[in-house]
Design brief:
β7 (about 260) and β8 form a beta hairpin. Strands 5-6-7-8 form a 4-stranded antiparallel sheet, with no helix packed on it. The chain has a 3-stranded antiparallel sheet with strand order 1-10-9, with no helix packed on it. The protein has a 3-stranded antiparallel sheet with strand order 2-3-4, with no helix packed on it. The chain is of the alpha+beta class. The chain has 2 domains: about 5-175, no CATH class; about 185-290, 3-layer Sandwich (Rieske Iron-sulfur Protein). It has 9 helices and 10 strands.
Length: about 300
């Protein structure tokens, strides 16, 4: 291996270690717990699910952060040629206005994470907050006619914000804070009818865990009908068999996501992706399931 490739590999390892480090900083749990409680206590009502992105089918925060990032990168380019400073000022302002909703959506998602991901998310938020403060100072300097100072502060913000974005990408993809955890169900569910047991073995209204081929499922009996869903929550893989049945929905015991039993659609977040539902039939008193549409 040549020297250049060796240096690149070492740099890559250092970068990965730096991104992974915050998840192990237990000291962050001290401020994180009360902060998460404060976010959960916000009187958001039905807007909380909207901020999670339930209506969109995936987390809203990653989409919203593109707006301030795009504004600030464009402002940096317009700061270079003469005569375009006013346009750059407008873009810095627009970025600051767009950062508010993006941050709120991020905090709402963050409050429902487990401790390791919450630690990474907290460092991500602090880094981005530093970028927002730098851009706020940049706008203030611009308004006072100190254009050189405003440009320098804007460039400093443009360094801080991508650092926070890198942590956000690590949180989303390496730590899998946002993806649909049930996406692999169609590849694991049995295409042929598979018996789960006698119908009478499933207590009415009580979630029961079973295995269909390679897939763990949860069975909820409603009279003579049985609903069968993938057992691991699409949000963060919570065990739905330990959850509760509420108004025709199955509630996850970890973060409170609710899924409609009849079709798996999200009734309440933080989950944004529906919970996969298996096709069922009762044959000779036995409950059988298979992948929907496999017949």
């Amino acid at each position: 291996m040549n020297t250049s490739a060796l240096h690149t590999r070492r740099w890559s390892r250092r970068l990965r270690r730096a991104l992974e480090a915050p998840a192990h900083w237990n000291v962050l749990d001290t401020p994180a717990r009360p902060l998460a409680d404060a976010v959960e206590a916000l009187p958001l009502g039905r807007y909380r699910d909207a901020l999670h992105g339930v209506w969109l089918g995936h987390p809203l925060h990653p989409a919203l952060v593109q707006l301030p990032m795009g504004c600030w990168m464009s402002a940096a380019l317009l700061d270079l040629p003469p005569g375009r400073h006013r346009s750059a000022d407008v873009l810095v302002t627009a970025g600051l206005l767009a950062a508010g909703p993006a941050a709120l959506a991020g905090w709402v998602d963050w409050a429902r994470l487990d401790p390791p991901r919450r630690r990474t998310g907290l460092v991500h938020a602090v880094t981005n907050t530093g970028g927002v403060l730098l851009y706020s100072a940049s706008l203030l300097a611009r308004c006072r006619g100190r254009r050189a100072r405003g440009r320098l502060l804007g460039l400093a913000g443009l360094v801080a914000v991508p650092g926070g974005a890198a942590l956000g990408g690590h949180l989303s993809y390496r730590q899998a804070a946002g993806p649909d955890r049930a996406a692999a169900v169609p590849r694991l569910a049995p295409p042929e009818w598979t018996t789960l047991g006698r119908v009478e073995d499933f207590p009415v209204g009580q979630p029961v865990r079973r295995t269909a081929g390679e897939l763990a499922v949860v069975v909820v009996r409603d009279g003579e009908r049985c609903h069968v869903l993938a057992e691991r929550c699409a949000h963060l893989s919570g065990p739905l068999s330990e959850g509760t049945v509420v108004d025709g929905c199955l509630r996850c015991p970890w973060h409170g996501s609710e899924f409609r039993l009849r079709d798996g659609e999200v009734a309440a977040g933080p989950a944004t992706a529906p919970q996969p539902v298996l096709e069922t039939r009762i044959l000779s008193g036995h409950l059988e399931v298979r992948l929907p549409g496999a017949g």
